[in-house]
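Entry 0007
Protein: Release factor glutamine methyltransferase
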Amino acid sequence: MGLTVQAIVRECATRLADVDSPLLSAQLLVGEVLGLSPLALSLERDMVLDTVQAGKIHDLTERRAAGEPVAYLLGRREFYGVDFAVTPDVLIPRPETEHLVEAALAHFPVEASLRFADLGTGSGILAVTLARLYPLAVGFALDRSGPALDVARRNARAHGVDQRIAFVQGDFTESVPCHGCDLIVANPPYVTEAEYAKASREVAAYEPREALISGPDGLDHVRGLLPKARNALRQGGVLILEIGCSQAEGVKFIMSSECPGFKDFVVTKDLAGHDRVVFMRRA
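Output (structure tokens):
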């Protein structure tokens, strides 16, 4: 007799004891193979799996035990209440990045006819979410990675906003080929080289390095981004950036000493109380 749902979840959780959230990981992987939500797994706990289902679950479990992130195994990650496709070509969305969306909502009403840009769009979570929340908005999403842009376009199509976002391949530290923006958002690489050296295997072995590291102090991309963003914003336009938890003063120094033309510098903390988002306005 084959394993029941309850038994294989328990078995997988035991195998995943050395990864974060072993039980949740087990439930997600089993649910993915069986097409069941965590609640449905509980209701169907006595269902017996066939050998094909059990084999697929064991394969996923071994990959997870080796450190492969659940988001890549499932091919999706939730952001701002909806699922987005993810692949190893893009950084896995983090909940902290939702603070950028909240900052935009705090400064622009949803009925605004926004012209926005998302620099370093990756999977497109920010561009697509802004387009979803602002039905009159048009956007511009830039990334240096062609495969990442393919994922972003896929997400835009899935959420019905692809006709309002222009996806362009390019490096935002070299050029931002748009102008007159009301809003620019960016979650640039901001991990220092020293921090990356201590990163978990789950991050270092699987997520794209170029989407994480930004030089010795984690601010190389900010130095390149600020002057290009300033030129792309209209007067009074807003720039919202995600930063590392100890980088607010460094970003403020770059803004004031190396890239004049901004004002109204404001720092917002994340739910853990760490500096996470900076807001500034083009003077």
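Curator remark: The longest strand covers residues 233-242. The longest helix spans residues 51-65.
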